[in-house]
């Protein structure tokens, strides 16, 4: 059991004088349960009475942790938990393209539910993709297995940006139906809705597909700032509408994936990206759902990503979680950051690494356990099921 008072291994950065070794206690004494509960109810006021967050999932370990409240155990889920690591996923996808699967409500719901049934994770994440909103808007994009999203026509000029179609609200109906089908099965297990952050979406649009350093969008924000701004605003509107549709249909939390933000300097992030991510997260601000903001290679961007409007920050495996929490001022819920590479290590090695992540997570007011990035496709599903059991037993 990872003690609440576990001594945290010395991190590479000084801890501010007087900060608690386990901020959980430091954060909680300030929390007046009655006041928090009243504020929480006010926060959810705009949601329908029957929304899962108002009738059950609010007391789930995931949502309580995102609210900064103690929970029966540390919640755990995995990015890319719905995917090729599951034989049942491969069977369900047989003969159906990726985007077609995302836009077939019964199939998207089934795939979303598979890892919850198999692993007993504390949250489902909606089976879709960050380029689905682009597709629904009418942009020529497909997902190539082993590569990722590929566009028919890269977006490189002001004219290309001006030609980008707006996402019609009715085009989101298959998404709403898939979410409704999913939450009808989930009961008190929360569904996390998600979207791609404007920079990551724009990086695919400008490059036309996956790239390592995202040089073209990073050049555009300096060489043609007006086109960059118009493109990022379009991406924020499109992703924001996608997020909102999932929440209105029943998602109890959202995650904004800025997977490729790590290629940005803090200066470029603050000057050219942060406000657009704030607009995407702002699309659900009035609905009160907890918001998680995740990126990879973002050790220098953590506070700026939180300040874009997140309740929690997803941290990748490259920075120790206590160091990340320190950079967030010790006052932000963190998510992560088990290294996916250790899923193929011997079980005792993985468990010791997970204990270290749990100990380091004690330095934040709340810790949602996750990987530092997605589940590798060749992962043994039993390793993930065992890891969920281990995390629950260690933190019960
Ligand atoms: C960058 C990114 C994308 N899509 C996503 C991101 C951000 C997360 C991350 O950083 O990995 C987000 C995403 N994509 C998918 C989900 C559903 C949730 C889940 O998988 O658990 C989520 C949350 C399904 C998917 N999206 C994709 C798959 C693999 C499709 C398959 O072959 O089954 C899944 C399960 C395809 C995809 N889509 C994308 C990539 C890079 C790929 C992988 C290409 C490949 O390796 O085959 C773009």
Automatic annotation (TrEMBL):
<dbReference type="GO" id="GO:0004853">
    <property type="term" value="F:uroporphyrinogen decarboxylase activity"/>
</dbReference>
<feature type="binding site">
    <location>
        <begin position="80"/>
        <end position="84"/>
    </location>
    <ligand>
        <name>substrate</name>
    </ligand>
</feature>
<feature type="domain" description="Uroporphyrinogen decarboxylase (URO-D)">
    <location>
        <begin position="192"/>
        <end position="208"/>
    </location>
</feature>
<feature type="binding site">
    <location>
        <position position="373"/>
    </location>
    <ligand>
        <name>substrate</name>
    </ligand>
</feature>
<feature type="site" description="Transition state stabilizer">
    <location>
        <position position="129"/>
    </location>
</feature>
<feature type="region of interest" description="Disordered">
    <location>
        <begin position="1"/>
        <end position="37"/>
    </location>
</feature>
<feature type="binding site">
    <location>
        <position position="259"/>
    </location>
    <ligand>
        <name>substrate</name>
    </ligand>
</feature>
<feature type="binding site">
    <location>
        <position position="129"/>
    </location>
    <ligand>
        <name>substrate</name>
    </ligand>
</feature>
<comment type="function">
    <text>Catalyzes the decarboxylation of four acetate groups of uroporphyrinogen-III to yield coproporphyrinogen-III.</text>
</comment>
<feature type="domain" description="Uroporphyrinogen decarboxylase (URO-D)">
    <location>
        <begin position="75"/>
        <end position="84"/>
    </location>
</feature>
<comment type="pathway">
    <text>Porphyrin-containing compound metabolism; protoporphyrin-IX biosynthesis; coproporphyrinogen-III from 5-aminolevulinate: step 4/4.</text>
</comment>
<comment type="subunit">
    <text>Homodimer.</text>
</comment>
<dbReference type="InterPro" id="IPR038071">
    <property type="entry name" value="UROD/MetE-like_sf"/>
</dbReference>
<comment type="similarity">
    <text>Belongs to the uroporphyrinogen decarboxylase family.</text>
</comment>
<protein>
    <recommendedName>
        <fullName>Uroporphyrinogen decarboxylase</fullName>
        <ecNumber>4.1.1.37</ecNumber>
    </recommendedName>
</protein>
<keyword id="KW-0963">Cytoplasm</keyword>
<keyword id="KW-0210">Decarboxylase</keyword>
<dbReference type="InterPro" id="IPR006361">
    <property type="entry name" value="Uroporphyrinogen_deCO2ase_HemE"/>
</dbReference>
<keyword id="KW-0456">Lyase</keyword>
<feature type="binding site">
    <location>
        <position position="204"/>
    </location>
    <ligand>
        <name>substrate</name>
    </ligand>
</feature>
<dbReference type="InterPro" id="IPR000257">
    <property type="entry name" value="Uroporphyrinogen_deCOase"/>
</dbReference>
<dbReference type="Pfam" id="PF01208">
    <property type="entry name" value="URO-D"/>
</dbReference>
<dbReference type="GO" id="GO:0006782">
    <property type="term" value="P:protoporphyrinogen IX biosynthetic process"/>
</dbReference>
<keyword id="KW-0627">Porphyrin biosynthesis</keyword>
<dbReference type="GO" id="GO:0005829">
    <property type="term" value="C:cytosol"/>
</dbReference>
